[in-house]
Amino acid sequence: MDQSDAETFVARFHDVRKSNDAEAIMEFFVDQPEFCISGQCRATSIAARHEKTDDFTALAQHLTSTWSWINVVFHNIVVSGDLLITRYTLTVRHLPTDRQTETDIVDFMRMHDGKVASMTQYVDTAHLSAIALGDG
């Protein structure tokens, strides 16, 4: 994947994520991908880890029914071999409370045959938990 392909993939991925269509999002991933929203799972409900044996579809449906992506401003898109790194500012709405906020995110994606085989997302999970609880 070259830089142009990476930028096109990331733009398409985020456009589909903004649609909140879990099944359409799944098309960007290999079957049974590894997925992690970094953070302490015992400290926040935002952190999530999906291993290859878990049901990734259920996790995608949960995330899209809980968080709506409003706007994405890209700062960096870096490709190195099969690694794709994206840094962006996200405007997001917590759907159950209708609260909106901005947060910075860094995604590390390992690609395989043009799809995401593993993804680790670094986001301020404490801030998003506070938004979800009405404290942020």
List keywords for this structure.
4 helices; about 140 residues; 6-stranded mixed sheet; alpha+beta
The helix-and-strand class reads alpha+beta
Total number of helices: 4
Broad shape: globular
Biggest sheet, in brief? Answer: 6 strands, mixed
Report the average pLDDT across residues: 86
**What is the number of strand segments?**
6
**Roughly how much helix do the residues carry, as a percent range?**
25-40%
Strand order across the largest sheet? 2-1-6-5-4-3
Report the portion of residues in β strands. Answer: 35-45%
Helix and strand sequence: HHEEHEEEEH
Task: Tell me the span between the first and last alpha carbons.
Answer: 39 Å
Contiguous uncertain segments of 5+ residues: none
Radius of gyration: 14 Å
Characterization of this structure:
A six-stranded mixed sheet has the order 2-1-6-5-4-3, sandwiched between helices. The chain has four helices and six strands; from the N terminus they run ααββαββββα. Helix content is 30%, strand content 45%. The mean pLDDT is 86.
Helices and strands in order:
Layout: H1 3-18, H2 22-26, E1 29-37, E2 48-50, H3 56-66, E3 67-80, E4 83-94, E5 99-112, E6 115-123, H4 125-133
Parallel strand pairs: 1-6
Antiparallel strand pairs: 1-2, 3-4, 4-5, 5-6
In short:
The N and C termini lie far apart (39 Å). This protein has 136 residues and is an alpha+beta fold. It has four helices and six strands, in the order ααββαββββα.
